[in-house]
Amino acid sequence: MENSIQVKAIVKILRKRILLILSIIVIAMALAAYVSYYVITPVYQAETQILINQKNTDQQQMYTGAYSIETDLQLINTYNVIIKSPAILSKVIEELKLELSPEQLAEKITVNNESQSQVVSIKILDEKPARAVEIANTIIDVFKEDIQKLMNVDNINVLSVAKLADDPQPVKPKKILNIAISGFLGLLLGTGIAFSVEFFDSTIKTEQEIEELLNLPILGFVSSIKEGRGSISTRRGRRVT
SS3 for 166? Predict the structure, then answer.
């Protein structure tokens, strides 16, 4: 019974402050939309994929295929580091004439591979879609050429190169998601403010609140008198117990 009364009280507060809650939700979503569409710079992504596998040599023919694949998987972690190393990125920066340091360029690069997979994905994030494509493809070209000198191996095959779409879409910011999250946060904030206002507001505004507070019926009300020019008119006033 007490739980039912508490739920009714909560629902009553929410209905009473619904305009406040909705206003905060709308403001939060409007701010998120403005920031997402007009403040945050869009970021585009380009992706390439390479396959890492050892070419058969007289020495490698002594080992089984499973051992060769395991060796390739161990090399992938090393290659992931080399791809983002200054040795590779400095040449990329020089070739594309980028106004970036190797460290700044490395922050734009993500290198990963699926579990137990010899396929490595290289993703580039940049404010310009065409530049993201150029960086991704140049990294592959430089890495494929230099890895032969650095590790004396030739086991890189390009599976896919980055291409510029006719209508590139940014991957950041996620505008709709940002607006939805802001709306949810606005709901939480509005609800919290509504309960806070209700908790600290001790004024009595309606006759019904008097009945609920004192648990007594209203017996009548006193009319207020308003003086006009040459006449006296009455209007309904507040009820009293």
Answer: coil
What parts of the chain have a pLDDT lower than 70?
1-5, 54-73, 201-241
| pLDDT on residue 21 | 95
Residue 92 has a pLDDT of 96
Task: Tell me, yes or no, whether 152 and 53 share the same domain.
Answer: yes
pLDDT of residue 197: 86
Which residues are CB-contacts of 47 (< 8 A; sequence separation ≥ 6)? 121, 122, 123, 124, 136, 160, 162
**What is the extent of the structural domain holding 188?**
1-40+174-202
Among 70, 109, 95, which Cα is nearest to 146's?
A: 95
- Per the CB < 8 A criterion, the answer to whether 47 and 119 are in contact is no
How many CB atoms sit inside 10 A of residue 50's CB? 24
Cβ atoms of 218 and 210 closer than 8 Å = yes
Determine, yes or no, domain membership for 178: yes
- pLDDT score recorded for residue 204: 62
> In 69-153, where do the E strands start and end?
109-113, 119-126
* Under 8 Å between Cβ of 41 and 127: yes
Same domain, 147 and 182: no
53-72 residue pLDDT tens: 755 444 444 444 455 556 66
Tell me: do 53 and 156 sit in the same domain: yes
Give me the residue label for tokens 């400095």: 90
Q: Answer positive or negative: Cα dihedral of 226, 232, 237, 241.
A: positive
Say what the pLDDT of residue 43 is: 96
Find, among 52, 50, 80, the residue nearest to 160 by Cα: 50
Query: How many domains is the chain partitioned into structurally?
Result: 3
